[in-house]
Amino acid sequence: MTPVHPWAWWAWALGLAAALSMTTNPLQIVLIVLAVCAVVLLRRSDAPWARSLRIYAVLAAFIIAMRLFFFIVMGSGGGTTVLFTLPQVELPSWAAGIRLGGPVSAEGLVFTLYDAGRLAAMLLCLGAANALANPKRALRSVPAALYEASVAVVIALSVAPQLVESVQRVRRARRLRGGAARGWNAVTAVVIPVLADAIDRSLSLAAGMEARGFGRTRDQRPPSPALTGGLLAAMLAATLGAFLLLGSASPPLGGALLVLGVAGTVWGLRVGGRRLSVTRYRPDPWTVRNSLLAASGCAAAATIALVGTGEWPTLYAAFHPATSPLTWPTLHPLMLVVAALAVAPLALTRAPLPATTHPGHLGEAAA
Fold it and tell me: For the chain, which terminus, N or C, has the lower number of CB atoms within 10 Å?
């Protein structure tokens, strides 16, 4: 099987992140997180960026801990079930509405935990996309008009995985040399080589881009102001249409603006890309399997969005359990359907071959 298109992984992950943003049921959140972790562990490659999910998991745990900490110290005193009471600090009149200390309710604590868990799960979805999608192949698949911007985005997304690889390489070299420093001395002994390695990578990247003529165009004249203005107007129309459509303020107008904005954006990118001479080595075809992979994440988001319309109060209450008064979250059968859509890549893809035996490894390295 050919490798999965990188933007198919991103569409799957973004769809799951959108689905998580529309529910607060911890059971649904845990099911999606388990599905995402299973897909990453069983389908990631041996590349350096494939090991970055652990970093995102640490960030997710940090987000949950900080949200709970700020709620306990500065949260509102609402709720009838008081768990404990902290010493309260009297603040001046100009700080009205801000509380330090005081009673901590179970209702507020559970609501904060649900909301923080949802945000942490969305971060894990983005981490899964970074771990599964090859950033170099993603760079080759963007429209020509966005080539320069995509380079900056891809480099920014690959910073964390590259730093992880540098830290592992430096720590391995220190162990081989008998480095026994611990504590703060070990941190300082690792940071300096990692920064030096980052500078070397940046210089090598700049030299490689310069040698390959990056930024060369067929026509050195800048794009016309009319094209730039039209593209900006189309993007603003698409954004406004999405806002009106999701906010249910004016669905017909929002849908029309969204369609016109997307069509104008696509047309502007195609016209603007004609002035660039961008070649692709082994372009990644978009196959039916990639469409099914992207559709699985979008279908999960569409399912929860359909529940959020409020047409079925029982389903809405299942996906949004009440916290005042406290109620136990329930597992609805539709949540298992969403989890099955989240884990669908396991049935649509295969585990990648090791880097040493991958048939396209030598060609990828030569590119």
Answer: N
